[in-house]
Amino acid sequence: MLTQLRIKNVAIIESVTLPLHRGLNVLSGETGAGKSIIIGALGLLVGDRASSDEVRTGADKASVEGEFDVGDSPDVARALDAHGLDAEGGVVVLKREVAATGRTRAWINGSPVNASVLAEVGRLLVTVHGQRDAHALLDEESQRVMLDQFADAAGDAALVARSHGEVEQARAAVTALLRRRDDAAKRADYLRHVADEIEAARLREGEEASLNEDLTRLTHAEELRSLTAEINDVLDAGDESLARRLGHLQRQLTALQRIDPATAQLQTLFDAAFYAVEELSREVAAYAASVEHDPARLADVEQRRDVIYRLLKKYGGTIAAVVESGKTARAELDALDTAAHDLAALEKAVRDRESALASAARALSEKRKQAATKLGEAVAARLPELGMPDGRFAVRLLPREAVGPTGAEDVEYRVSLNLGHEDRPLARVASGGELARVMLALKAILAGIDKVPTLIFDEVDAGIGGAVGLMVADAMRRVGAKHQVFAITHLAQIASRAEHHVVVRKAAKGGITSADIEVVTGEERITELARMLGGDADSDVGRAHARELLAGAGSASLEIVRSAGARKRRANG
Known about the structure:
about 60% helix; elongated; about 575 residues; 15 strands; alpha/beta
């Protein structure tokens, strides 16, 4: 529960420390005194959007800090642990700052966090209900979520949503396969032509360069043969060939060595030159033998090169790209052959998942059906206690043509608040005040299920008064038996039932309007209740009425305990 709320420099509040207790806490005060600012500050604390407009005039920043006693709540512990945080001694401290520049910062137990983490943890600690939240009852989704909460079917609803998503994925896979198959079928002739043409070419990596070399030799065959003949003449043909002249040179070197043995190293150099000329002669002869004037071969090479050039131009700039295009075309054609088998497997997956969805939806529908009857009866039983003696409430399940992500039916809350009138959808019948009371009845019933420890009710008493106000107050006190309840109210009837009463007042400090709070007890509380009843806090009649209201609070508490026991006994049979 929220044990303390500290607010600094928010709007007209300079510095306020608001202590809160278990049970029903109320905040009262004149219109404009700052009650809504406190609710706004609570919203900031649990992650609502912040604005520099909320910073008090002349201040650098505004801050809100809340201290919560969470005990050993596993939900809170899990949320904190997921972000590397923990609740020290069962205490969680949330803090939010808003600078005048608009920059915001947040902390949990002293560790910096972003606003989304603050909101995630805050939602587990505080829920704010106001006139706007009562209107959320008109939303089909809110009605469905409440019913599922009452039915303990949140897990079943999540399973249906997940199963529906899996069905949609499986159907999308079938659609995608059919589209690919149809596209491939339309292009089959073209794809077959591509695959056959490329495969028939039997391309080899590097073949283009090799063909270019062959083409060059074949095109210049006569010139190459003439050049090699001239080289051969110089090396090894005729009386003046290099080979004959080297033979003569050998005789001269031999004679030189006989006269001067020191010239023997010249023989080594000669031998190397002789063998090089001899090797060159052999290679030239071999090359000359390989060069032939072959018009047929030249035509074949030119034709092969044209084939490759055409394929490169059509399917890619390299042989590797052309080969890959052929493989891709063949794969698409193969997909046509395997599509029937793949389609059968995917359609079976669709049927299996549709069956799982139907099963999950049936289980959820059964829980909803049982819960709808019980919730309708329970709310209807509460309406007379909230000033609607002829009120009837029912939860209708409206079947859908097909199971959707939220189940096989829509949920609709219907009411009849006047005798002799048929029930109609809540949106078409209830006024703002009536909506707030219906919401309060639902919250009173769901109090034992709702795990959020602190519930804030912001002026849900609008449009009611007198005996109805007392009924609403008693309902809040019943909720306060299982939750900490913090109600902002203008009604003395509700304030009189509180176990902890706080008053917010507005005054001028140093020429600047400021709000402050005070916990009232005894005569101070009588004074505040008298003011709320008629505006004149010193009126003897008003003060007597205030004392009467407070005296009735004790007997009302006893009656709440008795009523709760009676309901429990009826539930147990």
